């Protein structure tokens, strides 16, 4: 089994992510259209049926990452903002536990590039244990996918006039999984934000190398590489105010 997975170029985690959406679809179809689903599976060879589940699941996973995950990030950012305001840090992004907000308001990443910058750092060597990071996010992604799947199943149960108990059960389970996904992502993002705050200059260098930040925005960081990150950022902050000084002297 492991050799087959390796020959396909798939890790076990990726295979699970790709197939999970197809598995949920088959289970949902079996619950609401059992006879039709059974007829389709019986008409296929078992290996073809498994391959079809993986292929369909991969398509669902791509849709999930493209559509659902950004919406989840947006809602999570709203929760982070509420948490920041509750802690009295609503106007100070440098104290936020949200890495996306910190990248924008503390490190100067443009608004439309913040999520991209966050994903670039995640896929770079910035974080020391990237494998465990990928596993944590994949696990959280399965929570989100399960919650959304149960929410869709709730809608199907309502449209088909299923029992009230079944509909309520599906809805409650969807809320439980979605709430767990927000909690898990909150903790994971807070940990990642703390790591970025520990090494902000290194994060800026990576983003400048990729093109998210302009080289001139972080030119001073190359000269300050031997300083601690906190000292470097303080000096960078001082330099940001320097352009106003020549104009003041000019006025004199």
Which short descriptors sum up this protein?
252 residues; mainly alpha; 0% strand; disordered C terminus
Largest sheet: none
Secondary structure class reads mainly alpha
Number of helices: 12
As a percent range, the share of helical residues equals: over 70%
Rg measurement, Å: 24 Å
Overall average residue pLDDT: 79
SSE string, helix = H, strand = E? HHHHHHHHHHHH
List low-confidence stretches: 4-9, 223-230, 239-252
- Intertermini distance: 78 Å
Strand content: under 5%
> What sort of overall outline do the alpha carbons produce when their principal axes are compared?
elongated
Structure summary, number of beta strands: 0
Please explain how this structure is put together:
The chain has 252 residues and is an all-alpha fold. It is 78% helix and 0% strand. It contains twelve helices and no strands. α2 (12-32) crosses α3, α2 crosses α4 (46-86) and α2 packs parallel to α7 (130-159). The radius of gyration is 24 Å and the shape is elongated. It starts with a helix and ends with a helix.
């Amino acid at each position: 089994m492991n050799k087959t997975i390796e020959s396909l170029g798939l890790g076990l985690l990726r295979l699970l992510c790709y197939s999970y959406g197809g598995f949920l679809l088959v289970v949902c179809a079996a619950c609401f259209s059992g006879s039709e689903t059974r007829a389709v599976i019986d008409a296929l060879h078992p290996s073809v049926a498994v391959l079809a589940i993986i292929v369909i699941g991969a398509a669902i996973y791509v849709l999930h990452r493209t559509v659902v995950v950004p919406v989840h990030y947006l809602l999570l950012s709203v929760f982070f903002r509420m948490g920041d305001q509750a802690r009295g840090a609503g106007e100070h992004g440098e104290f936020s536990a949200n890495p996306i907000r910190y990248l924008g308001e503390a490190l100067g990443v443009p608004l439309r590039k913040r999520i991209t910058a966050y994903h670039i750092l995640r896929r770079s060597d910035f974080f020391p244990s990237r494998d465990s990071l990928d596993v944590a996010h994949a696990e959280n992604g399965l929570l989100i996918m399960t919650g959304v799947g149960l929410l869709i199943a709730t809608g199907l149960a309502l449209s088909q006039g299923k029992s009230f108990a079944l509909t309520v059960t599906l809805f409650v389970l969807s809320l439980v999984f979605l709430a767990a996904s927000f909690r898990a992502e909150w903790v994971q993002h807070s940990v990642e934000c703390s790591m970025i705050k520990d090494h902000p200059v290194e994060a800026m260098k990576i983003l400048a190398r990729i093109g998210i930040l302009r080289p001139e925005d972080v030119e001073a960081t190359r000269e300050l590489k031997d300083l601690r990150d906190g000292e470097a950022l303080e000096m960078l902050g001082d330099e940001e105010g320097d352009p106003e000084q020549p104009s003041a002297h000019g006025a004199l």
